[in-house]
Amino acid sequence: MSEIFLFFEEKIESALKNQKKYLPEDIRMYVLHLLSNSVSDPLILNNKRVYLFDLYQDTLIGSNTEKENKLKRLGDHTITIVGCFPASVFNTSTGIDYYITMGRAAYTSARGISDKEIYQKAYIYYLDIISILHEVSDSCSYFD
Description:
- The structure is a single chain.
- By secondary structure, the chain is mainly alpha-helical.
- The chain has one domain (3-143).
- It has helices spanning 3-19, 25-38, 42-45, 52-58, 64-84, 87-90, 95-113, 117-124, 126-139.
């Protein structure tokens, strides 16, 4: 495992313990991979505002596999932004509630296309994941 993966694993475990929250193992791994991959994610790194409507509109085009991947990307993007960078959406015309609604809807729609249970779990644990990511973000300078 990479150093960044181990770093985030320690931070997530600490946040879960501090908040007395539970995430199923597959969701923990999903979040760990999401965070580990965020260090090279162009949507995060380019510092340009990404409009969720544009990401959503793109999910309407393509094969079911392409749509599933785009919906996953939309859900992952919203959970990362709201969990790690909430201040970036506080003063927008849409706000955090919009991001949460779009993210959860994206995972639900991906589940409707695919039989992958992870999307249903991402929907169910979405708010807990955000809470955990808030603490991870606050506990390290990586996100500064």
